[in-house]
Amino acid sequence: MPASAATDHVASYYAASANPAPERPALAGETRCDVCVVGAGFTGISAALHLAEQGRRVVVLEATRVGFGASGRNGGQIVNSYSRDMDVIESRYGADTARALGDMAFEGNRIIRERIAHYGIACDLKEGNLFAACNARQFQALVEHQALWERYGNDRLELLEGRAYRREIGSERYVGALLDHSGGHLHPLNLVLGEAAALESLGGVIHEHTPVTRIEHGEPVRLHTPQGRVVADRVVLAGNAYMTGLLPPLEGRSMPASTQVVATAPLDEASAREILPTDRAVEDGNYLLDYYRLSADRRLIYGGGVNYGGQDPASIEGAIRPKLEATFPQLRGVAIDYAWGGTFLLTMNRLPQFGRLNANVYYAQGYSGHGVTCSHLAGRLIAEVMAGHGERFDAFAGIPHLPFPGGRMLRVPLTRLGAWYYRLRDALGR
Ligand SMILES: Cc1cc2nc3c(=O)[nH]c(=O)nc-3n(C[C@H](O)[C@H](O)[C@H](O)COP(=O)(O)OP(=O)(O)OC[C@H]3O[C@@H](n4cnc5c(N)ncnc54)[C@H](O)[C@@H]3O)c2cc1C
């Protein structure tokens, strides 16, 4: 569904159930600050909040509304670690990088929980997420995944062999699952709105309806908007897939991709208990994965698919309903109240891109589908590097990012071709 207006949130279940939040005025005139953050999603607001906690004067500029991008539309799944497994990181980038990233793999999750507790954010937090295997190959991958994550300190994993997963998921689709008791799920728009309010309580300033159209690099940096200008000592670029033109060196090295979500009408208690008896979040192990969970008012929030390039299909319900009903035939014909899409940013190696454009302009983006936790980690690492402790930020910044094959013109068709192969492999159960 399109946004109800070009400057408003997309018409989603989250927007319809958002906690009250003020509409912040657009920037008019010139303002001065220590750090200007571009983009008010998890990355931008998390960075701004950490920086404000350090006592810095922070101004956030958001093109539309706080949480307008992926952060206010996603599946709400708190998934630990990164979109690339630690063993691949180890083999490609060496033991030191793997150890550094492994030590931070569960920190984003902890930051979210600290934020919720410290600032009293009401965002329907629930415990536990499952990785469900659709075939024997995927189950074997979960066995290895468990061993790896345990090696990096997650001791809250439970492997559900054979039909043991049925105590968690009322579907016949799977052959087993891995339960991460330390994961969870929440209302993502209410999380970012709560974090934005926390930022403002510390003196941070947010301007909505304020796209940054041009950056004049230098010391200080000047950021231009339609009716104003910010003069800042430092800048954080946090526009992710919704930002164009401000980070030219990375544009061929990342690719917007959209994924779609529906929310059913509220289910009766018995149906909700039948499909997700323990109320956890689930994602399957397919290359183009399905992900789902229950909302606080017992809607099934079901997402899936990826469109490379970032377009939504003509009918989101038409794309998602067959997946939902294949997983839960007992919900055939269920009413769908909301359907929406969102765009995230993919990188070639599926690892996030953290770095500096100049000595005083930092960026973090490209979480490749799993960004709820890592964007929160990014915010802390940006605040650390600005405080003169860059070791952890640089562990990410040192990872090379290759351009997508085919460049900006052909990256979409070539990636679709690659995905077609993996989809076929999933369909054949190999
Ligand atoms: C449908 C969907 C489902 C997902 N499900 C999950 C999930 O369940 N779990 C998970 O871990 N991850 C999930 N993700 C990924 C996750 O949501 C993202 O990785 C994460 O939210 C990225 O946060 P961000 O702040 O970097 O970017 P965004 O949230 O996209 O925020 C970027 C913001 O920058 C603003 N902006 C852009 N350009 C400018 C400019 N020039 N000037 C001012 N502002 C600008 C935009 O308006 C936007 O508000 C999902 C993504 C989508 C789209």
Q: How many strand elements? A: 17
Uncertain runs with pLDDT below 50, 5 residues or more? 1-5
In whole angstroms, the N-to-C terminal distance is: 35 Å
Beta-strand residue percentage: 25-35%
- Which outline best applies? globular
Largest sheet: 9 strands, mixed
Give a list of the ligands: flavin-adenine dinucleotide
Round the mean pLDDT to the nearest integer and report it.
94
Give the helix/strand class: alpha/beta
Quaternary arrangement of the chains shown?
A: single chain
Number of distinct helices:
12
Question: What helical percentage do the residues reach?
Answer: 25-40%
* Order of H and E elements: HEHEEHHHEHEEHEEEEEHEEEHEEEHHH
Radius of gyration: 21 Å
Structural overview:
With 430 residues, the chain is of the alpha/beta class. It contains 12 helices and 17 strands. The strands form 2 sheets. Strands 3, 4, 5, 6, 11, 12, 13, 14 and 15 form a 9-stranded mixed β-sheet that branches. Strands 1, 2, 7, 8, 9, 10, 16 and 17 form an 8-stranded mixed β-sheet that branches. The structure holds flavin-adenine dinucleotide. The site of flavin-adenine dinucleotide has 44 residues, from α2, β11, β15 and α10.
